[in-house]
What we know:
The two termini are 30 Å apart. The longest helix has 35 residues. The chain has 19 helices and no strands. The chain is mostly helical.
Amino acid sequence: MDAAKQIDRNYIPLRVQRRNLLFVVLDGVAIGLMSVGGAFISVFVIRLGVSPFWVSLLSSVPSAIALVMTIPWSRFAERRTRPQAVFAWARFAVHFVYPLVALVPLWLRGEFAAKAIVVIWSLSAFPSSLSEMMFTLVMGHAVPPDRRAFLMSRRWIFMGIAKLIAMPLASQLIGGMDFPLGYQMIYGANFAIAFLALFCALRLQVPKRERAVPPGSSGPWRARFREGIVELAQARRFMRFVSGRAILNLGLGLVSAVIPIYWVKDIHASDAWIGYFNAALSAATLIAYLPWTRVKHKLGTQWTLIASVTGYALYPALMSMARTPLAVLPVIVFHGLVGSGLNLSFFDALLDVCPPQKEERFVAINMTAVNLAGVVGPPIGAALLGILDIRRVMAVGTLVALGGVSVFALGTQVRGRVFNLLRRRLPPRRVRGSDTFTSRLRRWISSAQRRY
């Protein structure tokens, strides 16, 4: 009876699915147009005269805030029955930073204006951590599970097209107007587009959720902590997914700051070549979404995840083999091609491993692990760069990332096929009931297959 109620509550009529698809795509277009704000914020504060330390705070402080706020936000979200409203207004609060950034140069000058913009931009991480968590929940329930890849691929395709259109237009506007008027016009336009994104998000129709009560919401903190640990221990599929993703992100985080250094100092790529790299990455990512959607429909989420994360983990090692800017281009294209599959498979796989009616809490735990890897990885990479050759550092990043791939494999059908292959390769038992080495090995493989 409870299962029937769950199915009925999550049923989404075809008319509602089509409506949600329209507004999700329009929302993606709006976000793509607004992406120029984030792309130019570091250039804006640098031109205002801020030091490199303050520029680094634009990325480090929001990551630290997200790391701290994600779990508390999940408890807030669990008590809300309309996730699309929480998502829409939380994201609009993030977009409210645009008019503030545009107005700061009217009140302050030079370095003081730049520092104020960095502080304002960093504080937007408080609502941003909530909106990013709710994005996964809202988009994951806007259509049935078998239509998620179709929905998200269309959203990302149109968002990428909008971004490709907006970036050159914004560059022309900034270059053709006096400083800082061009930047102020960009951020003012972003705030106007934010109302379109708010309208689209509020128009989404998502199944109403029951007001959840987190485990251990009352009582001593030790009891609450113990109950939370027990709940995580019971969600083995989720823990394997989060562990694999955290290790993968740690390996890629090791080289996130190393690869741009390699481009500039080792292969001497010019600004024009770096622009070609970004354009090739965007084009390859857009082109690959539709083929990956078909692959996922044919092979399933698990095999698509293994294929895409393996390719993504190999990216630093492949990059270390490129000795000229021209040789980097195919590596960048490969990175964009597998990145599309990674986006699609991660989105679906996360929702598949989250326990029903507990998505907020478990999505928050996943975001916390990812943010922690993002905070820890770059300093480790910088430290390794002081003792190892830059190509060796990239090889270390690939090795760590491949460790994450192996963890993902433990949570997929790959594991079952490997165990079955091992059992078939063993010779048959000669004496019934004998305790030979092969019989003990068979029992170990069977127990391991049940345990994992």
